[in-house]
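Repro:
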Amino acid sequence: MKAAFFDRQGPARSVLHVDALPDPEPQPGEVRVKVAVSGLNPSDIKTRMGFAGMPMPFPRIVPHQDGAGTIDKVGFGVSEKRIGERVWLYKAQTGKAFGSSADYVVVPSAHAVPLPVNVPFETGACLGIPAVTAHRCLFADGDLRGKRVLVQGGAGAVGTAAILLAKWAGAWVSATVSREEQAKVAAAAGADLIINRHEENVSEAVKRSTGSGVDRIVDVDLASNIEIDIACLAPSGVVTAYATENPQAKLSLPFLATMFGGYAFRFVFFYSIPQSAFQQAIDEVSACVASGAYNPGIAMKLPLERISEAHEAQESGRTVGKILIEI
């Protein structure tokens, strides 16, 4: 098979290669997927670059956790009826060396989730890490119907997923952005209020539209946004953080304001979401997708041979929307 891989950590053009590797074979309980589209995430960049001193977990890595394609082979214990099934993938490279940036990938059967025939593979490759992370951020504290949500960073992959899922669940959604291109993505996802954080006072805009503030905040950079978040919260509101670009970031809370408001703070890491919550996310993300309500913004689609360019675009932070690799 043709695959992208790296044997050492470093810059994309220095370490990523595309070449032939042996076709993988499914073991008991596994399926092999003919990959149509591979989804790129920030965590894939961090693995390649050794974020926070992270070592190479394997001597050779075929990157990417997310993707979509068609099951073409099954291992012992998996029904052959799954052969030919269209699926979206999650944790394709978790605990093993070879992920979805290849012609074929082998995953546990449960990690290949049915994808409706009317849903393009591109949408399936946008699920995985962003959608499950967003779901946990939104629903860990209960139902959203009638609630008010603020998404800090509404044009990122998780931010867009949070808008889409929250609107599907019946919430009112506001989102912050930094520039016009991002505002268009947040608007397309269905945000009711879009706030340019460089041009407007976020908390004033939120309070003006809601009266008492928001019930949930999904935040891409809590260490920087903590004061804004607290000013935006309604009584007993919850802030959930899922990312940081600074491994040394520290968080300082105003104790009395936080206590008097009854606020709560939650931290979500995709790879440590409890199994029951993870399964709930898979089920409800799938339901959202099947309903036609999940339409993520896609920044670019590149062929596998241009994977280095895709990684560089992800690192640059200039693209707005999901970056995909067509296999």
